[in-house]
Amino acid sequence: MFRLMRTVAIIVGYAALATTRLNAMEQKKKTLPTVHSQDTYTSLMAKKWAGCILDSAGVTVEVTGNNSNDDKPVLLISNHEGNFDIPVLIHAIERPFGFVSKIEVKQIPFLDKWMVALNSIYLDRSNRRSSLQMIKDGVASLKAGHNLLIFPEGHRSKGQGLQEFKAGGLKIAKSAGVDIVPVAISGTSDIMEKYDSKRMVPGKVTVQILEPVPASVFTDHSLDEVGQLIRQRIAEALTRA
């Protein structure tokens, strides 16, 4: 219980402090020459915030694969184990990115402003029109040079195994004409969900950044086929974790 209370206090306190610096950060960002350099600069503070959370919970992260930060926009696709996926991925992936996130996240204090700063997109799963707008906004974001990350399972697996992928989000990559980078994350559910969120347990998380799936894959494959291909690659990677 002490570890949980300590972690929550650090998360809220650091997020509040970091939010006070957003205006200054936005002004600095305007002086940078490219979208990629601006996004990279913004992500630095988010990485500090994420690292603080992981340190407070006693979480270590091992990253494998091509973790380069080039300026070619991509759609990152990751499995979704637990609540710690978000800070782990922000901490682990060098490439700056925004999330396609459920609308409920807007209600979390301080986090909404950071989601906006990271060029994230919200989705209301109860509203079909919101899904169409999410695709439109996602395509526009990628074409503008930003990176996005989606969780195609739709919700956390909580350590119960890889769930089926919803292929709808792949429309973003297809319409924007960008490569897809699969990401396999393992170990986050052991930190919290394994114990019904009643306590946090220190542990190790692995993040595997897999080989990109080229945008040309949609020439000969349907959305569902591409979704199954990516799911299979992530499933195989999880067996190696």
From TrEMBL:
EC number in record: 2.3.1.51
Signal peptide: 1-24
GO MF term list: 1-acylglycerol-3-phosphate O-acyltransferase activity
SUPFAM superfamilies (UniProt xref): Glycerol-3-phosphate (1)-acyltransferase
Alphabetical list of InterPro entries matching this protein: AGP_acyltrans, Plipid/glycerol_acylTrfase
Domain (Phospholipid/glycerol acyltransferase): residue spans on this chain: 74-188
The keyword Transferase is annotated on this UniProt entry: yes
Matches recorded under CDD domains: LPLAT_AGPAT-like
GO BP terms, alphabetized: phosphatidic acid biosynthetic process
Recorded metabolic or biological pathway in which this protein acts: Lipid metabolism
Cross-referenced Pfam families: Acyltransferase
Top-level lineage group: Bacteria
Keywords attached to this entry: Acyltransferase, Lipid biosynthesis, Lipid metabolism, Phospholipid biosynthesis, Phospholipid metabolism, Signal, Transferase
Recorded GO CC terms: membrane
Catalytic activity: a 1-acyl-sn-glycero-3-phosphate + an acyl-CoA = a 1,2-diacyl-sn-glycero-3-phosphate + CoA
Family membership noted in the UniProt record: Belongs to the 1-acyl-sn-glycerol-3-phosphate acyltransferase family.
Domain remark text: The HXXXXD motif is essential for acyltransferase activity and may constitute the binding site for the phosphate moiety of the glycerol-3-phosphate.
Protein name, UniProt field: 1-acyl-sn-glycerol-3-phosphate acyltransferase
Organism name: Macrococcus carouselicus
